[in-house]
Amino acid sequence: MADTRTIHFWGAGTLRTFRPLWVAEELGLAYELSGIGPRTGETQTEDYTRLNPKQKIPFMQDAHMGLSESVAISRYLIARYGSADSLLTPETLEARAREDEWVSYVYGELDETALYVMRRHGDLKAIYGEAPAAVTSAKAYAEKHLGVIAQHLQSQEFVVGDRFGLADVMLVSCLDWAVRYEFDLSPKLQAYRDIHRQRPAYRRAYAVNYQGAAKV
Ligand SMILES: N[C@@H](CCC(=O)N[C@@H](CS)C(=O)NCC(=O)O)C(=O)O
Prior knowledge:
It is globular and about 45 Å long. By secondary structure, the protein is an alpha+beta fold. It has helices spanning 15-27, 46-51, 70-81, 93-121, 125-128, 132-153, 166-180, 187-197, 200-211, and strands spanning 7-10, 31-34, 59-62, 65-68.
């Protein structure tokens, strides 16, 4: 549902910055984007550090609400601007807990524990140190949990509930990341990813995040 307030995002070009942009596109929100990148010095400026002392992207400002963390921003947008016919908006405590379970699982086990470890000690080894054993073990760890997720998806179209939601944004973004790191995805996960990458909001967010498409 469109809103008259101006939402401003900082950060582009990574899977973490992609998530809130995808959610904003799914919700039909108007937003402005300062497409700053990681390790360009843009997260270290005085102005940006005042906004986000963590010096990380993504960051979002919505009226007086400033928020970092890709999951927190995405969840906030859905809770504030979502509706029954947009993204999954779990109503009951149990439904919220179930979504939380899967979002935490995908973020904790795939993103932070596995893919980002591969990134830190692979692509970013000049900063964080070269650790081939950590990269190999993180990949095996991700493969194990991708197996659990593939099994879960045997009986359902979406990670949680009966419509596309935050857990799917998390999973598709991690699958994109895994493909970049040359994981051999199972047919189930490939099919799931292919379907959701066709979503018009995914395509618009992709263009904004990776190709610098102008966005107001
Ligand atoms: N847990 C954070 C991670 C944010 C993060 O690490 N962002 C990276 C880019 S993917 C970053 O800002 N790096 C800049 C730097 O470390 O200087 C989230 O999910 O938003």
